Amino acid sequence: MAGPGRGTGSGDATYRALVRPLLIPSWLVIGILMVLPVALMAVYSFLTKEFRGGVIWDFTLAAYDQFFLDRGLFGDEPPRIEWTYITIFWRSIWQAVLATLLCLLIGFPTAWFIATRPARTRGIWLFLVTIPYWVNLLIRTVSLRFLLRDQGPMNEALMSLGLISSPISIINTNLAVQIGLFYSYLPFMVLPIYAAVERYNFALSEAAADLYASRWATLREIVLPVVKPGIIAGCILVFIPSLGAFLAPDLLGGAKTFMIGSLIDEQFRGSQGNWPFGAAVAMILMTLVLIVLLVYARAQGRAPR
Amino acid sequence: MRKLLLTWVFLASPAFAEGQLKVYHWFEYIPDDLVQKFEAETGIKVTIDTYDSNEAMLAALKAGKLGQYDVAVPADFMVGIMAAEGMLDSFTPEEMPNLGNIEPQWLDVPFDPGRKHSIPYQWGSTSFSVNRDVYQGDISSLATIFDPPPELSGKINVLDSQNELLILGSLYLGIPQCTQDREALKALNDMLLAAKPHWASFGSDIAKDVLVSGDAAAGMIYNGFSAKARAEGANVEYVYPKEGHVVWMDNVVLLKDAPNRENALKFMNFLLEPENAAAVTNYAAYTSGVIGVDPFLDEAIKTSPENNPPEGITPGVFAQACDEETQRLYDAIWTNLKK
Fold it and tell me: Taking the first listed entry, what is the main subcellular location of this protein, grouped into a coarse class (chain A) (predicted)?
């Protein structure tokens, strides 16, 4: 964002007079859509749970205690480290990492392919990538369920071709969840990488080749540093929603184990009705996400300009 | 989708003078024709939002939706909870002319003595069904889902509902509901953890579809939902297990601060007409608690094995609402099961 013309006194004054009112909408958006909800969540995570949903305005650390300390089924054993929720977090993080890697593996070549097409056809390719996103995520996930099921079209096609003799069981497995996450978030990987690759000056590759760089060296030394911001942005855009996803785990994975998303959902919609705990889990998740973003910011800061 | 369609119908129709009705209802539980019939008779436009568990409904109302809906359809124990939380409005017998249509056994119920807040919607049971093409053996026990034969292992869907799953588990082990007995709860916890590897999925709204599609060969399910699965072509048999099953009654309740109280009463009274109660039964395949529905019932529903348990079965039990301290233990078992 380039500032308006500096150096002329009048321009400076106009700038200062205008900047505050012009910033009001941004402040409203940040205040109402971000600061307020997060503050509300932070406060709720320290309140006392009311039976069957709701809160009592007594401040307590009970929600965080429940997350980190295990006092046994009956709550009277000496506290140990509670692994239940850490396990759930670990499973969700691992799943998000896998989904991100899978998206990167497929997304990078896809973005590269699109960016290297003639300018007039690139729009069509991008359009094709975004078409599925005109349909609601829920409907796309349910449709995947139909495709993947044992008696679904995928298995029937493979069997009628004689490639397999009995259906491949994919539905209700982690593989199905991976496929769901990958399918849901692939464009979030393709688009930022495409934007980065499109700006890449291909004369640099030719120059590298002229200087006897191997293809691998060109990719590693020239291309990757230039498109790195796009890759990092894509990874973040895939990783963060995958971390909190619960449609894919519920509909494709069979809802057998809690993910972070479904654990939080259960606290508000399920029979547990433990709002402070739900808020605390959300706060802990947000802290993790912030750490990821900080790492990104540092990586960006070090990136050559 | 249904909500969308309804909204579309309203947008396309001329404005009604008689106002609106906001219904908070279970998924797939009221036929569209019946809603349209009510609209045509009264000129009231009906909007329906849906939920998939009693708890989700309670949570949404507590989180600020109370005052936005006129009626909801909680199960028996949930009527008691909502009444205790002060979330229900009451009506007088004069305001509900069709109150006399309620079957005597459902008139003075423990969860709403004298029927001051609620009217019967449908009642039924929860246990499980088995696809008889896949497994022909003995299915008379709850062991079929908690300790299944090899043919069914890995092909079972269970309801994603703490309440019903833990009650059926307790029945299987012969443990009373809402117990604080340590040995009993530990046994329940261990039994469920051992059963889980045999299950393919947890899901309530998918319970019928997975049986029809063949994703599951057996599943915990409501009797009417199982009847619908059978009607849709799955060779499933609904079981009244020897250890017992869960009985429930869903009730239409008048919510506190209902924005259209008069219309809500009209709707509830409308649902107590035998012909209309029968229309719900013909659609949902449960049993209404209304007198005189027989002439309006489809033959298949009237004689369905799901609605007509054989003589001598173990009677069902209603769900109990546990107190806070006890409920915490059941919550812990549920979290253990899904961690």
Answer: membrane
